[in-house]
Amino acid sequence: MAGIATSCLTVSSRSKLRTSWLEFGTHPARKIPGKQNCWRKFGVIRAEVNYVSSEEAKKLVADEGYVVLDVRDITQYGRAHIKSSHHVPLFILNQDNDLGTIIKRTVHNNFSGLFFGLSFTKPNPEFVESVKSKFSPESKLLLVCQEGLRSTAAASKLEQAGFQNIACITSGLQSVKPGTFDSEGSTELQNAGKAGLITVQGKISAVLGTVLICAYLFITLFPEQAEKLFNLAPAS
């Protein structure tokens, strides 16, 4: 009876969420009558994703030759990105024009887009192929995004595609202190995810707080002048 080579794919992750790994094994084929005996030794390809701090990430780039791969959308990348980084977005702008998408885009832009400056996106179907066109599976890649979630998802996809040297910054670029990396753009790396009305909310709150404190001190220290100014009724 003809022999059939079988293979297995095992994916696992450690409980501390520090490292995840991918293993691929090929089991030896059985004898094939009339043919030369074909045996393969059991082999393992192990890919690890290392989650590092921003300082550790800087050392990986400077000392170990890691290349920065930014997987954020084009909007956040444009606001600020690490100098000399490569950009392959995990999500791309959703410009589909079917009725359902138009409704969702309108709702999104009137809420998340207006208040938080979030772009309306969809998964990039060419993500893995685009990375493959730029890098070999042996390349050392430091994946970055704003909060750390997209880089983790991107690392999983690249693991499955055979990439073996991947690192991610824990909590993303929002945890990077100013000056850690040379950056380009109109803002700091940790603020690239902030846009829309949320960017002025803090300033408005600070101004209103200052006005209220000044008004309280004025009324407390100069009650007669405050009564005349605000036309307050005298206390009984």
UniProtKB/TrEMBL annotation:
Pfam families to which the protein is assigned, alphabetical: Rhodanese (PF00581)
Gene3D superfamilies membership: Rhodanese-like domain (3.40.250.10)
Membrane-spanning intervals of the chain: 204-222
Rhodanese domain location: 62-185
Key words, A-Z: Membrane, Transmembrane, Transmembrane helix
InterPro entries for the chain: Rhodanese-like_dom (IPR001763), Rhodanese-like_dom_sf (IPR036873), STR9 (IPR044615)
Any GO CC annotation of this UniProt entry: chloroplast
Superkingdom field: Eukaryota
UniProt-recorded name of the protein: Rhodanese domain-containing protein
Organism: Jatropha curcas (Barbados nut)
